[in-house]
Amino acid sequence: MEEDTDFRIRFSSLGFITDHVGFRGTIKSSPSDFVVIEIDEQGQLVNKSTSGLISKVLPEPNNFAKKTKLDFQNISCQEGSNQEVNTFTKCSDDRNHQSGSEKEDTINDGTSTGEEEQVHVLGNLLDEKTNDLLTHFAFDIKEKWNSKTELIGSSPEFSLGRILDKNQRAILHSAVRQKFPFLITVGKNSEIVVKPNLEYKELCHLVSEEEAFDFFKYLDAKKENSKFTFKPDMNKDHRKAVHHFVNKKFGNLVETKSFPELNYNAATPNIAITVRFREKKHKHRKRSLFECRDQKVIYTAFTLRKENLEMFEALGFLAIKLGVIPSDFSYAGLKDKKAITYQAMVVRKVSPERLKNIEKEIEKKRMNVFNIRSVDDSLRLGQLKGNHFDIIIRNVRNQINDSTNLRERILEAIENVKVKAVKLFLTPEDLDDPVNRAKKYFLQTEDAKGTLSLMPEFKVRERALLESLHRFGMTEEGCIQAWFSFPHSMRIFYIHAYSSKIWNEAVSYRLSTYGSRVVEGDLVCLDKDIDDEHFPSSKVHLVTEEEESASTYAIHQVVLPVLGYNIQYPKNKVGQWYQDTLSRDGLQTCRFKVPTLKLNVPGCYRQILKHPHNVSYQLMEEHDTDVKTEGSHIDEATLSLQISFNLDASCYATVCLREIMKHDF
């Protein structure tokens, strides 16, 4: 297995707190040997049933709403809402990823009601003659386009006349564009003029007319948080052309991304472009009560069980199946890949029934969802009490040159660490796979296009980054665009990962330099009962020379800062280590507030020592038959250690095991 040599050296140099000898063994022989169960804020394991807490199930959005008459005071909200629901239902349904007659039926079902509504609106706002002339004008434009006849002279126009009421004009603009997406409407001093939509014609050169028709209907409906998906397209250059067209013409309104359409019967997944409206920071217009009620966001909580699967890969798969994007999921923290893990999650814009409908499909990816229920809001990072671990250490044996009874060594180690453990942040990574080989190629060549050909299609976030670098180049602007290709929650995770890595190394340096003594210049937490890393700076105190001499503070009160703009560093060798390390990484002037990157990290403090809770263990004998000589078989028993414990949030089990075993992995 390939390793980052510098990383391995830094990991191996981490100090130990306890002084027992320890033992050797193998962890993560299989995912079932490493089980992680999240502990929620109430102290409950998330894999336990919450059936008694399930709230009522909300119905799926549908297009059952009908109007018996036009109300010109509210029609813009009601009409738009009804049509938008049709568009959203069509685009977010799993059937959108299918092909053939079934997909066509879905499209027809989604648009027929809307077209009837537009006929109803136009019939109420336009006289019969104008309505007929509009229809004739529309079909005349379409006929010329279909016959490849070029429109001679200036673009033809058709006037709908002057509409004095502003609200009625807005309704008419939308009704025309919804019924005839290949037309556009322009306002001139209360007059509405209809023209051919040349962008529609341009898009028809790239996609089918059916797709162009539905896309412009979607675009005009402006349904917040909705999405539109083009048909799957395996031609990368063609997808790039579609991306370019949509972003060039409508980039201020929408964003595009490519997602794999997972098909287990196919050798490679199909790729489809998904379009989604950008989030609006400010809303200036008032909304009707009907619209506010219709736009209420649905949040569905569930427990995710995954096996030997990276969390972001799991989210990408769930997003495809549910017709949302990965950033619609929220969670309290990351979980190991080579393990069986249970964690709480919340997905927005998906009802409990819809999530239950994909239970069977996701089992193929070694995932399960249960404890499905409606909730009022999403999860936030750190919204957990900790994690419970059930771990099997196999092939347990003595350290080299240690002849003491192995069982005594194991008992000594576990009893010792029950009261002492280092809270360190490390995520050792297995580099022997196609994904990391692609990453290594990129680091060696900076060839984004070549790396894209090596990166598996299911690695959505890596491919999004590489697409941006390929599009914008290996420049500062290209790197900024690549950074923003990640969802906000993922960007925060990477910042936290670097900060935690630095914090981890700082703890190692602090312990190797000063040991368990509290020295002048250390930072300590004054609140002895605090159990949270987000305590205020007023609780952090700088140890004086007099306090060191008087042994005023204990080692468990020592804290170190996690990088940010609102923290102070120790005033001793550890503080200088922070400065040297940031200089090494080119961040000596970084204040962790970078507007161009939307980077705003205040920082926090963490105690360097934490205790594992509820530690229990059991030794197991495994008999292996070994052929020593011809015709002679000897049964040799090997020991395995089954150990369980709880750790607070952000504590890593591998570090706790390292302290128990005195052995680097």
UniProtKB/TrEMBL annotation:
Gene3D superfamilies associated with the record: 1.10.1510.30, 3.30.70.3160, TruD, catalytic domain
Keyword Isomerase: yes
Keyword Magnesium: no
Compositionally biased tracts (Basic and acidic residues): 91-106
Recorded catalytic activity of this chain's protein: a uridine in mRNA = a pseudouridine in mRNA
Residues in TRUD domain copies: 371-611
Keywords: Isomerase
Annotated stretches, region: Disordered: 88-114
A matching Pfam family: TruD
InterPro entries: PsdUridine_synth_cat_dom_sf (IPR020103), PsdUridine_synth_TruD (IPR001656), PsdUridine_synth_TruD_insert (IPR011760), PUS7L_N (IPR056963), R3H_PUS7L (IPR056961), TruD_catalytic (IPR042214)
Protein family membership: Belongs to the pseudouridine synthase TruD family.
Protein name: Pseudouridylate synthase PUS7L isoform X2
Organism: Vulpes vulpes
Gene designation per UniProt: PUS7L
